[in-house]
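Example for tutorial group B:
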């Protein structure tokens, strides 16, 4: 690995003295190791998640272990998230080992798209009732529009690299694509943050006995959404400048390397928060056989019929 980073790590070696080159190579080698470690952690989490779903969750809920039960939309999205995250961390490390190559940058962008899309859809499915409860119909529909556009927007940076463009036009198109993708994702995350935060703050003011599942979804959903916002900020502040060739001195290299570590950390926080949410939601079923979906459905049926819960919960269709 050291030979790889030493042979291809610098875009323009004449920018650095010999001692600076050794320092810069050491920085990139450290980032390489950290991102590979995060990739291994993401892969291990994938295996644990599959085990948890198949041997813990289904048994706790009293469900028959079958492929159909395991491969629910929510489970598939969460597993896809961690598979894409494994690929993202690994290809990001690969690109940092040779920033002159475009292939790892392209593959990394594709994995980033898969990570963002699976995260967005999983968060929406898991937190759908909270979003309905805290959003107006108009804002709920806007949230769904952003969600449907998310796969296309998140793919735009990767697709822009496939265009037959070079030089300044290529950079401009890539920046526009990245800005569009970031805007859609950030808007969606901010809407998630708003709904989850409102749920946490307002539940204390209501006299309705809201199921704990709402608190769990809101708490972990808020953490994941904040992690997503910070992660996209780190991506914008570090990954884009490097891909545009703007990291040209030692202080900027150090800044970029720190940013890479933060990017990997924040996106892991997103994923771990979603796993912890799943574990917390299954815990009551493990102890008392209570199904989360049944508890929430009973709550909605009871309080909608008495008028205590907004009729948005029954009007809006998913």
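The residue assignment follows.
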């Amino acid at each position: 690995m050291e030979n790889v980073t030493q042979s291809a790590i610098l875009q323009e070696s004449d920018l650095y003295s010999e001692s600076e080159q050794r320092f810069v190579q050491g920085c990139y080698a450290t980032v390489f190791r950290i991102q590979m470690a995060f990739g291994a952690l993401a892969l291990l989490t994938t295996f644990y998640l599959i085990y948890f779903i198949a041997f813990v969750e289904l048994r706790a809920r009293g469900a028959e272990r079958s492929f159909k039960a395991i491969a629910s939309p929510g489970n598939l999205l969460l597993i896809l998230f961690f598979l894409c995250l494994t690929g993202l961390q690994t290809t990001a490390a690969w690109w940092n080992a040779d920033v002159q190559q475009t292939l790892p940058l392209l593959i990394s962008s594709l994995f980033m798209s898969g990570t963002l899309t699976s995260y967005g859809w999983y968060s929406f499915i898991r937190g759908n009732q909270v979003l309905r409860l805290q959003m107006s119909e108009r804002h709920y529909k806007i949230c769904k529009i952003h969600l449907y556009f998310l796969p296309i927007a998140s793919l735009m940076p990767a697709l822009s690299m496939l265009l037959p463009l070079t030089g300044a036009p290529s950079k401009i198109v890539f920046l526009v694509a990245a800005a569009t993708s970031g805007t859609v994702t950030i808007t969606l995350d901010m809407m998630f943050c708003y709904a989850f935060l409102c749920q946490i703050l307002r539940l204390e003011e209501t006299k309705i006995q809201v199921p704990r599942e709402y608190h769990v979804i809101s708490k972990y959903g808020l953490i994941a959404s904040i992690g997503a916002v910070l992660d996209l900020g780190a991506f914008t502040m570090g990954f884009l400048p490097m891909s545009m060739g703007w990291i040209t001195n030692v202080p900027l290299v150090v800044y970029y390397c720190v940013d890479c570590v933060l990017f990997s950390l924040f996106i892991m926080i997103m994923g771990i928060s979603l796993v912890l949410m799943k574990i917390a939601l299954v815990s009551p079923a493990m102890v008392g056989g209570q199904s989360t979906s049944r508890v929430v459905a009973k709550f909605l049926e009871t309080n909608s019929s008495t008028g205590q819960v907004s009729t948005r919960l029954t009007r809006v269709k998913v």
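Confidence is low (pLDDT under 50) at residues 1-12, 304-318. Compare this with the pattern of hydrophobic and polar residues in the output above.
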